Amino acid sequence: MISRFTYRSDPIRIVFGAGAMASLRKEVDFHKLSRLIVLCSPSRAELARHVTAAVADRCAAICDISVPNMPRPAFDRVVGELHRLKADGFVVFGGGSPIGLAKAAAAATKLPYIAIVTTYSGSEMAARWYLGVAEQRVTGDDAACLPATAIYDPELTLDLPARTSAASGMNAMAHAVESLYAPDTNPVVQAMAEEAVRLLGLGLPRVVDDPRDLTARTDALYGAWLAANFRAEVGLEHAIAQRVRQWFDLDHAHTHAVATPYAIGFNASAAPDAMARIKRALGVADAARGLYDLNVRFGLPTGLKGLGMREEDLSKAVDLVSAVKVTHPRPVSKSDLTEILRQAYYGAPPRF
User: Fold this and answer.
1) pTM, whole model, 2 decimals?
2) Which helix H or strand E contains 343, and what residues bound it?
């Protein structure tokens, strides 16, 4: 018997599938947008111009200033351009960095936007935004930061390098597995999260073997979207990955990939139902080891040391993570965190 639960679905229009980019004009018309800017990173400006050609007559500018960590100057410039050009909305093209910047701009201006998603990060589905890193970080939680429409076209992911794809996919995996045992989880979330784990586990190895495999790309992108549909309250994995990558300047997706097996390993004994779902979805005997083995299979670093973190920073990392309020099945002490981060630093298979 299913227990009573509460589930909220954010009002984002989703257009998914190969060739979905052809719907851009229709989505612009649906939202009655007539004067746009296109936001992207400098390296994707030409591609963004090509992809948005169908609405070129409504595009006032290409704003190619997105960089990692959403620095304040980039935010100020985007908001300034939106006001200067009297835009009534915008289009963002790319992955977590441009979409994160778009969310902050939308929260500030209340303008609608369309997100054209090209990685697996899932940022577009989270009603949280931030600017900057470490002690300069400013955050907010506002449904106004969500896109009016998110377009997922796996054809746009075909040129994403194999290693980048794998790390981004494991970032999505982190959302899915932590959602399985979050205190606010429910049967709807658990069904989506387990299917996300299955599809990512199925699709990502094939993407790494052949980045041009459209069927594998479709599986991975759909799994990432499912994983992003529900964001648990901050759990151990996200507390570790977000604090460590901000303070020690580590790559975002790779840090999530490293942290996930150790957080799952620590929580395994207190969340047997979640572990059963992960094992079933991946077809493995041990949830944490199965996730760890995926990192090995993809050729990703398995430890924070491999991402450039220094051993002498471990004690500071423990202090930083212990300051975060985490919600998950097993209480975690400072000595627990010391052991978790030690294992995550050296990158051997998780043992708890």
Assistant:
1) 0.93
2) helix 334-346
